[in-house]
Write a structure and sequence with these properties.
CATH superfamily: YheA/YmcA-like
Largest sheet: none
Number of helices: 5
Strand content: under 5%
CATH topology: YheA-like fold
Structural class: mainly alpha
């Protein structure tokens, strides 16, 4: 089997993962809620504006910093947004673990699972 075929197979397995499914479900729930969408859009708009200001060398005022903090709190207080963030972090952790395993294999390092690695297999897989 070629490298490309194995990469495709890995992609298929990732596409079937619980973590990706959880993230997609959380995203659909978030997108179906008008209030959650409004909060996310407002946050993204403010973030873009404030980042543009900072790139131009301007510092945020205290009231602008307070706006960002308020929006972050509103996002985390919304259960749909919070659930999406949690699911997204879970999926990103799987991708990070896969990347680490590939890096170890490339460098010739031994791969071993532990409780803080390989959460997808529960830490019970063998070398």
């Amino acid at each position: 089997m070629s490298i490309i075929e194995k990469a495709y197979e890995l992609g298929q397995e990732i596409a079937l993962s619980k973590e990706l499914n959880d993230m997609k479900e959380a995203e659909m729930a978030l997108m179906s809620d008008e209030m959650a969408q409004k909060i996310v859009l407002e946050f993204n708009e403010k973030q873009r504006n404030f980042m543009a200001m900072q790139q131009q060398g301007q510092e945020l005022t205290e009231s602008q910093k307070a706006e960002v903090k308020d929006l972050e709190e509103r996002m985390l207080d919304n259960p749909l947004i919070y659930s999406f963030f949690q699911a997204q972090q879970g999926f990103e952790k799987v991708l990070e673990e896969v990347n680490n395993i590939i890096s170890q294999a490339i460098s010739g390092g031994e791969h071993s699972c532990s409780d803080d690695c390989c959460s997808s297999c529960g830490g019970g897989c063998s070398n």
